[in-house]
Design goal:
Order of helices and strands: EEEHHHHEEHHH
Number of helices: 7
Radius of gyration: 25 Å
Strand order of the largest sheet: 1-2-3
Structural class: mainly alpha
Largest sheet: 3 strands, antiparallel
Shape: elongated
C-alpha cells in the first residue's frame, strides 16, 4: 500500500510493504509527489509479480550463514556465531513472531534485541537460562554489555554477507548503536609486596621474563 499526504506545506510518500513502512519527504509539489507515488507502486508491483529477487527468510539466511562459517572459519568461531543466531531466533520467536522475512529485520527490530538480551536471565558464565525451571539462585539478569555488543557484531557480519549474496541492499545495523560499556571491572594492579611474592614463586627460568615485565611496563603487542 502506498499513499501521499501533506504536512506543513510539504508532501510525503508513505509506503507499507511486507511489514515495513517507509516515509519519504518529497517537497512542496503535489505533482512530483504523485510521480513518486506511481514509482513506489510500480516497485511494489514488480516485487509482488516476481520481477525482483525473492525475499529470503531469516531462518534460511541463518542456515546459509552457519554453513558458510563451518566452511570458512575455525570451529570455535563457527560455534560462537551459532550461539549468536540462537539468541536472535529466540528473540524473534518470543518478541517478534511476525518478523519472518529478511526484509522485515529492520533497525527498530534489532534495537529491540538489545533490550531482550539485557532482560534475559543468564548463568554466571553467560549461558542462556532456558526456562524458569532451570533458574538457579546465582543466575543474573542480562549478560555483560560487552557480550551483547559482540553479538550485535555477529548479526552485522551475517547481514553484510546477505548484502554480498544479493539478499539486501543496505545493512539495517548501520543505525544500531552499541550499548555503552559500564559493567567492566576496574583493572587491579599488584602492589610492591605482591610483586615480590609473585617473583619469589616464579620458576628460575621464568624469573628474568616476569622481572622485566614488572619493571618496564611492557605490554603484549
Amino acid at each position: 500500500m502506498a499513499r501521499i499526504f501533506k504536512r506543513k506545506n510539504v508532501w510525503y510518500v508513505d509506503v507499507r510493504f511486507k511489514g515495513r513502512r517507509i516515509r519519504k519527504r518529497v517537497g512542496r509539489s503535489k505533482k512530483i509527489a504523485e510521480l513518486a507515488l506511481r514509482d513506489a507502486e510500480v516497485k511494489i508491483a514488480r516485487d509482488e509479480f516476481g520481477f525482483t529477487k525473492s525475499d529470503i527468510s531469516i531462518d534460511k539466511l541463518i542456515e546459509r550463514f552457519l554453513e558458510y562459517n563451518r566452511t570458512n572459519h575455525r570451529q570455535s568461531t563457527a560455534r560462537r556465531y551459532k550461539e549468536v543466531t540462537d539468541h536472535l531466533r529466540r528473540y524473534l520467536a518470543y518478541s517478534r513472531p511476525s518478523v519472518i522475512a529478511l526484509s522485515q529485520l529492520t533497525t527498530e527490530v534489532i534495537d529491540g534485541y538489545k533490550t531482550y538480551r539485557k532482560d534475559s536471565l543468564v548463568t554466571p558464565n553467560g549461558k542462556f537460562t532456558m526456562s524458569n525451571d532451570n533458574i538457579q539462585g546465582n543466575d543474573q539478569k542480562g549478560p555483560r554489555t560487552r557480550t551483547i555488543n559482540l553479538e550485535l557484531d555477529g548479526i552485522k557480519t551475517m547481514l553484510n554477507l546477505a548484502i554480498r549474496w544479493g539478499y539486501l541492499k543496505e545493512n539495517p545495523m548501520k543505525q544500531v548503536k552499541p550499548l555503552k560499556v559500564e559493567d567492566s571491572e576496574p583493572v587491579r594492579f599488584l602492589n610492591q609486596d605482591e610483586c615480590q611474592k609473585f617473583l619469589g614463586a616464579c620458576p628460575s627460568e621464568l624469573y628474568p621474563i616476569y622481572f622485566t615485565f614488572l619493571n618496564t611496563g611492557m605490554r603484549k603487542a
